[in-house]
């Protein structure tokens, strides 16, 4: 259990703040490290050069002194003169060997013996706890007879090394402190920079069904967070709209169901209140049946809409000639239209990919709606045209102009075109919503316009071969929002 | 008249229907309704018993609920088809899901009804299924003094020619082929106009009203009757 918890904790990515702090620290440390290494090398080189110079100078001096030995007296005086010359140079060791390899002069030369020597080359060795570098050269001493003298000079450089060590120590310390500071600064900067995210979180936490109206201020959001804030606010807008529509919708649904149910109850109660003849009971049952049918149809339509919104409608499969469907429907509605003194005309042609039954249903709802509102003596025109990869099917009827403020809501559920357009006994105002659902499932859209006594409902569907553009993503939050 | 009975050559009384439905009320009213319509009905309430009965006895039609305890309606259908039985199967489902429909049809279901459905609709579909493959090749349909000549596309009532549109003719043919049956509006819309969805049923009312004007007005007896909330019945009174 705790193992799983630990594992979970280990898998969780580091916070942005921690990441930024770490990156800052690592960056500062590596930068300073490079600078420190370069500086250290420069100092070291400088010391090497100094030492080299020192050694050369000492050898030159010894060579000079050896060259001056031109008398026995001078030969006797040589050690003393060398001692004099080396006074104050207590980091310098000297050893002089005659041609037979015998040491005849030495000063602080404890470390020389064991070392290998090379002419001209610097040699480094350690003697006791001192570090020495040395060089040797061969000179000619004129007396007692001209002979070769090997001079070895050593230089104790341990104080340089101590110094370099101290410098390095300070550099390391400095780099560590600087890296820590950079990390801390990074942490602060990240925290400060990410504070707007915290505000988004706080707002999101504070949201509830009653407080959907809250929005983040876009003005004081930094550019990087602005997109998030805008997206967040946009999401809130859509949620709020969808939520409002849903609440209205449940209210409408309850209202729509209440009417037939209350009819049923009243009618049944009255029927039962006293004894009646069989015909009366039959009459009540038949009347109840009508109400039940109304409820059943509404439930069926609601179910259909719910399926459409959840993307459960069948995928468009066959090629459908809209003109054929329009004519079949015109045929179906002919008798009804004639009774109302309205003619139906179909013109044009266009093929779409889709489900024939559903498209027919969508069109049927439009036609039924148009007939309901058509003026006596007018013609309901169905026009089909293909253009720009889309098929437009327009159903136009002459009648009252629909007020512009009602147009956007016509395709919503339970909409019935305002109080003036009272219902004609059937259709709970779901027909146009169903039409829109079907059209959207086919990757199309619906439009409506109304002016000068002519109302036009238009379906725009991808033409055959163009349906790949088709089906929009299934709406998740707001089915009532047409895809942009 | 006998030639025009719903089931030529076989009387309803000898038609055996098995219903497997676990919802108590639905099962009871289906059994009552179908019995009163003249069928011999057996009702079982779970999938295991249903499958056993479906396989061990001889039936003319199965009515199966999809969701059943023990074994689903599909299981029963599968077992029946696996046993090589070709009898018609009608499914009842509360789920109006496309996958259900597709699955059922793949397994060999003959028809589907989504709850809630009208009993008249069920009855009409049951009769359609039972009649399948048994339609008589008739040239002329008769009821009382009405004659419908299918070859010459002519209708004559009481010796007078009645002019009908193509759809009115199709509607009258449907009525005359299914005399005595309650035909719900949705079934009429589906059979005559191929409108297989809950469409504006006013249309059917208007069409039937117009047909009535042509074949019933001024004639006795009236052949088309409206059953409120149910649909229409085309019937010639006995003995005419």
From TrEMBL, chain A:
The keyword Transmembrane helix belongs to this UniProt entry's keyword annotation: yes
Species name: Azoarcus indigens
Keyword Nucleotidyltransferase: no
Broad class of the protein's primary localization: membrane
Localization, UniProt: Cell inner membrane
A single Gene Ontology CC term: plasma membrane
Membrane topology listed for this record: Multi-pass membrane protein
Protein name, UniProt field: Sensor protein
Record GO terms (molecular function): ATP binding; phosphorelay sensor kinase activity
Histidine kinase domain location: 252-465
Residue span(s) of domain HAMP: 191-244
InterPro entries, alphabetized: CusS-like_sensor (IPR048590), CztS_silS_copS (IPR006290), HAMP_dom (IPR003660), HATPase_C_sf (IPR036890), HATPase_dom (IPR003594), His_kinase_dom (IPR005467), HisK_dim/P_dom (IPR003661), HisK_dim/P_sf (IPR036097)
Keywords: ATP-binding, Cell inner membrane, Cell membrane, Kinase, Membrane, Nucleotide-binding, Phosphoprotein, Transferase, Transmembrane, Transmembrane helix, Two-component regulatory system
Function according to Swiss-Prot or TrEMBL: Member of a two-component regulatory system.
SMART domains reported in the protein's UniProt record: HAMP (SM00304), HATPase_c (SM00387), HisKA (SM00388)
Catalysed reactions, as listed in the record: ATP + protein L-histidine = ADP + protein N-phospho-L-histidine
Membrane-spanning intervals of the chain: 20-40, 171-190
Enzyme Commission code: 2.7.13.3
Alphabetical list of SUPFAM superfamilies matching this protein: ATPase domain of HSP90 chaperone/DNA topoisomerase II/histidine kinase, Homodimeric domain of signal transducing histidine kinase
From TrEMBL, chain B:
Transmembrane segments: none
Keyword Transcription regulation: yes
CDD domains xrefs: REC_OmpR_CusR-like, trans_reg_C
OmpR/PhoB-type domain: residues covered: 138-236
Domain of life of the organism encoding this protein: Bacteria
4-aspartylphosphate PTM sites in chain numbering: 65
Gene3D superfamilies: 3.40.50.2300, 6.10.250.690, Winged helix-like DNA-binding domain superfamily/Winged helix DNA-binding domain
GO MF entry, a single one: phosphorelay response regulator activity
Any matching Pfam family: Response_reg
DNA-binding region in chain numbering: 138-236
Entry's Gene Ontology cellular component terms: cytosol; protein-DNA complex
Limits of the Response regulatory domain: 16-130
InterPro entries noted in UniProt: CheY-like_superfamily (IPR011006), CusR-like (IPR006291), OmpR/PhoB-type_DNA-bd (IPR001867), Sig_transdc_resp-reg_receiver (IPR001789), WalR-like (IPR039420), WH-like_DNA-bd_sf (IPR036388)
Keyword entries, A-Z: DNA-binding, Phosphoprotein, Transcription, Transcription regulation, Two-component regulatory system
GO biological processes: regulation of DNA-templated transcription
UniProt xrefs under NCBIfam families: cztR_silR_copR
PANTHER family assigned to the protein according to its UniProt record, in alphabetical order: REGULATOR OF RPOS, TRANSCRIPTIONAL REGULATORY PROTEIN CUSR-RELATED
Record-given protein name: Winged helix family two component heavy metal response transcriptional regulator
Protein species of origin: Azoarcus indigens
């Amino acid at each position: 259990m705790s193992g799983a918890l630990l594992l979970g904790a280990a898998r969780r990515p580091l916070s942005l703040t921690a990441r930024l702090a770490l990156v800052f620290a690592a960056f500062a440390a590596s930068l300073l490290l490079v600078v420190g290494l370069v500086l250290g090398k420069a100092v070291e080189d400088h010391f090497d050069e100094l030492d080299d110079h020192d050694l050369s100078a000492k050898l030159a001096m010894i060579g000079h002194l050896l060259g001056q030995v031109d008398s026995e007296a001078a030969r006797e005086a040589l050690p003393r003169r060398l001692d004099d010359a080396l006074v104050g140079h207590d980091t310098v060791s000297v050893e002089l060997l005659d041609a037979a390899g015998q040491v005849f002069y030495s000063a602080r030369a404890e470390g020389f013996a064991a070392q290998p020597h090379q002419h001209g080359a610097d040699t480094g060795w350690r003697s006791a706890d001192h570090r020495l570098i040395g060089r040797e050269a061969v000179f000619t001493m004129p007396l007692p007879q001209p002979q070769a003298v090997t001079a070895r000079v050593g230089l104790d450089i341990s104080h340089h090394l101590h110094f370099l060590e101290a410098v390095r120590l300070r550099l390391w310390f400095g780099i560590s402190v600087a890296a820590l500071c950079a990390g801390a600064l990074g942490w602060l900067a990240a925290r400060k920079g990410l504070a707007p995210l915290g505000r988004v979180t706080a707002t999101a936490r504070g949201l509830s069904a009653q407080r959907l109206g809250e929005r983040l201020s876009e003005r004081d959001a930094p550019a990087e967070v602005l997109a998030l804030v805008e997206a967040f606010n946009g999401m809130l807008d859509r949620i709020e709209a969808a939520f409002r529509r849903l609440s209205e919708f449940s209210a409408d649904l309850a209202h729509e169901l209440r009417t037939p149910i209350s009819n049923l109850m009243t009618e049944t109660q009255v029927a039962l209140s006293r004894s009646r003849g069989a015909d009366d009971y039959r009459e009540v049952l038949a009347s109840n049946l009508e109400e039940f049918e109304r409820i059943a149809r509404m439930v069926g339509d609601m179910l259909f809409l719910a399926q459409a919104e959840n993307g459960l409608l069948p995928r468009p499969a066959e090629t459908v000639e809209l003109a054929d469907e329009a004519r079949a429907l015109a045929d179906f509605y002919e008798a009804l239209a004639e009774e109302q003194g309205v003619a139906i005309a179909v013109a044009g042609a266009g093929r779409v990919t889709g489900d024939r039954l559903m498209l027919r249903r969508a069109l049927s709802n439009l036609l039924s709606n148009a007939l309901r509102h058509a003026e006596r003596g007018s013609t309901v025109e169905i026009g089909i045209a293909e253009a720009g990869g889309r098929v437009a099917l327009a159903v136009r009827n002459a009648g009252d102009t629909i007020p512009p403020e009602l147009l956007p809501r016509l395709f919503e559920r339970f909409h019935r075109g305002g109080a003036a357009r009272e219902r004609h006994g059937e259709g709970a105002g779901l027909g146009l919503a169903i039409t829109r659902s079907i059209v959207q499932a086919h990757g199309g859209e619906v439009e409506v316009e109304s002016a000068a006594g002519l109302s036009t409902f238009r379906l725009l569907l991808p033409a055959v071969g163009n349906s790949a553009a088709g089906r929009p993503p299934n709406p998740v939050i707001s089915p009532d929002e047409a895809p942009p | 008249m006998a030639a025009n009975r719903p089931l030529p050559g076989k009387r309803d009384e000898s038609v055996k229907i098995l219903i497997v439905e676990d919802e108590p009320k639905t099962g009871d009213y289906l059994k009552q309704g179908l019995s009163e319509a003249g069928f011999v009905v057996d009702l079982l309430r779970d999938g295991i018993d249903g499958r056993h009965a479906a396989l061990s006895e001889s039936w003319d039609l199965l009515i199966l609920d999809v969701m059943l305890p023990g074994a689903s309606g599909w299981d029963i259908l599968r077992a029946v088809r696996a046993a090589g039985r070709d009898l018609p199967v009608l499914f009842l489902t509360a789920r109006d899901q496309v996958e259900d429909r597709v699955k059922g049809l793949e397994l060999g279901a003959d028809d589907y009804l989504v709850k809630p459905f009208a009993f008249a609709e069920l009855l009409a579909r049951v009769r359609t299924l039972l009649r399948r493959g048994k339609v008589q090749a008739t040239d002329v349909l008769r009821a009382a003094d009405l004659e419908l000549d299918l070859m010459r596309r002519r209708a004559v009532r009481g010796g007078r020619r009645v002019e009908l549109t193509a759809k009115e003719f199709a509607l009258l043919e449907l009525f005359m082929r299914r005399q005595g049956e309650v035909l719900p509006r949705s079934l009429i819309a589906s059979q005559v106009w191929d409108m297989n969805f809950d469409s504006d049923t006013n249309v059917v009312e208007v069409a039937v009203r117009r047909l009535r004007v042509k074949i019933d007005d001024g004639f006795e007896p009236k052949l088309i009757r409206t059953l409120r909330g149910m649909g229409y019945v085309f019937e010639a009174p006995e003995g005419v």
